[in-house]
């Protein structure tokens, strides 16, 4: 499932995030990539562990926690520290797959990447090119969203970013390990949850059908989730 979530950041938060990182420190984007993706990746990113990275991370993590659609769709268990990257002057990221396992620097914590997430920090009219292209069995999906919007997609997908031929494309990318490993199971839960929310709005949260379906949701979550 690919899912677009709008307005994860407000316009003011986008501006604040951009102001935090605009002066860097920017470093070569290959600092964090795996072997195959290092061959394909041509961009810059904010140095991990810098004050700018930490401040912008905190802002994004707060916003994600306050986005119910993100929580319902991703069922996040562990989030790998967001990275802020910038493409300009023809920079690109060729077709690649994200590493399945990531170790959190300086710790023995490992995170399995179930979902890849891109939060856009520049608007589509600020740059040419720079589409995120995600491949699945239905073909290729082209994604270029407004600043503050994000896309989630299975980390198992091949994907790329087309060359940025004008302006700057700035975004925040991160991976997460979901409580529910299987994409299909996670999608079933998200759809069930969305239907329960809708039914609850129509009939009230104490309607017997809503209560029964909520029970079913939690029993499926209990069956499928690691915590
Ligand atoms: Ni990637």
Characterize the biggest β-sheet. Answer: 8 strands, antiparallel
Classify the helix fraction into a percent range: 25-40%
Question: According to CATH, what is the topology of the largest domain?
Answer: Jelly Rolls
- CATH superfamily caption of the largest domain: q2cbj1_9rhob like domain
Instruction: Give the number of DSSP strands.
Output: 17
N-C termini distance: 22 Å
What gross morphology would you assign?
A: globular
Task: Give the helix/strand layout.
Layout: E1 3-5, H1 11-21, E2 26-28, H2 35-40, E3 41-42, E4 44-46, H3 51-65, H4 68-74, E5 76-79, E6 83-87, E7 92-96, E8 101-103, E9 110-112, E10 115-120, E11 127-129, E12 132-136, E13 139-143, E14 150-154, E15 159-161, E16 164-167, E17 169-178, H5 183-203, H6 208-224
The structure holds nickel (II) ion (NI).
Characterization of the model:
The chain starts with a strand and ends with a helix. The strands form 4 sheets. Strands 1, 2, 4, 5, 6, 10, 14 and 17 form an 8-stranded antiparallel β-sheet that branches. A 5-stranded antiparallel β-sheet has the order 3-7-15-12-13. It has 2 domains: 3-178, Jelly Rolls (Sandwich); 183-224, DNA Excision Repair, Uvrb, Chain A (Irregular), CATH 4.10.860. It is globular and about 60 Å long. Helix content is 34%, strand content 32%. It has 227 residues and is α+β, with helices and mostly antiparallel strands. It contains 6 helices and 17 strands. β8 and β9 form a beta hairpin. The structure holds nickel (II) ion. The site of nickel (II) ion has 4 residues, from loops.
